[in-house]
Amino acid sequence: MKLNIAIQGIKGSNHHQVAKDYFGNDTDLVECLSFDVLVDQLLQGKADKGIMAIENSIAGSIIPNYALVYHNNLHIIGEHYLNIHHNLMVLKGQKIEDIDEVRSHPMALLQCKEFFKAYPHIKMVEDVDTADVAKRIQENQLKKVGAIASAKAAEIYGLTIIADGIQTIKKNFTRFVIVQRKQSLNNQESTKASLKFVLKHQSGSLGDVLITLANHKVNLSKIQSLPIIDKPWEYAFFADLVFEDYEEYKNAIADIKSKVSSLKILGEYKDNK
């Protein structure tokens, strides 16, 4: 039985590529034009698993997605890193001198802005999804309009790439997490965990947590603060832990619980970096 995989975007998007890399081709895609819609598809049982971008090596954390995972009680079961390649594509026969505007996701535009300094006549326009722009250019035969998207999008929608690898920083990685509704903890093969905790109002409380992790030989690979909406100037912390000994990690979690006011494990999975 095929898995229904919810992705942000459509076929040809980076989320589509991750779905292929992680699950293979024997899946049915549930295309979603926002992460909120993606979560709804999971909660309604219309998708078995979802793929969500969570951080980028250039732009940093996608903070709203941390909140979506936590507030909707989703569980992280895996991760995947994708080297992002941005390409400028147009209808066949068009040249870069013909282009008046380029449309793409805001993140893609940001990561390619240096390239377009040489083409001041081109207007940069934010859009909902990289591949969706490519699709609309073909469907509506939009001349003088370019898209920044993946090579796969150009292949699927029959566009011509007139400039490839236009991202400013070539080593540009995005980390994606695989999420589902069902909890999947106590996996002895796990080497990474994501959790959310709130500190007690005590001096040095974050330091105590960090020392506890170090004592158990658990590495803090990522920590991200997020405001608590109904408690001004108070913050929750989302953290990724990497470890070799699962039992030591569990002991660390047990010790940390006494040092924080709340703690929730969002997922345990294999470190895929």
Measured distance between first and last alpha carbons: 29 Å
The proportion of residues in beta strands is 25-35%
Please report the number of helical segments.
8
Runs in which pLDDT lies below 50 for 5 or more consecutive residues are: none
Overall 3D form: elongated
Helix percent band: 25-40%
Protein topology:
Elements: E1 3-8, H1 14-23, E2 27-32, H2 35-43, E3 49-56, E4 60-61, H3 63-71, E5 75-83, E6 87-90, E7 101-104, H4 106-111, E8 123-126, H5 130-139, E9 145-149, H6 151-157, E10 160-163, E11 173-180, E12 192-199, H7 205-215, E13 219-227, E14 235-242, H8 246-257, E15 260-269
Parallel strand pairs: 1-2, 1-3, 7-8, 7-9
Antiparallel strand pairs: 3-4, 3-11, 5-11, 6-9, 6-10, 12-14, 12-15, 13-14
Helix pairs in contact: 5-6, 7-8
Keywords:
single chain; 273 residues; alpha/beta; 6-stranded mixed beta sheet; 5-stranded mixed beta sheet; 8 helices; 27% helix
Describe this structure in words.
By secondary structure, the chain is of the alpha/beta class. The chain is built from eight helices and 15 strands. Strands 1, 2, 3, 4, 5 and 11 form a six-stranded mixed sheet that branches. A hairpin with a 3-residue loop joins β3 and β4. The chain is elongated, with a radius of gyration of 21 Å. It starts with a strand and ends with a strand.
Give a brief rundown of this model.
With 273 residues, the chain is of the alpha/beta class.
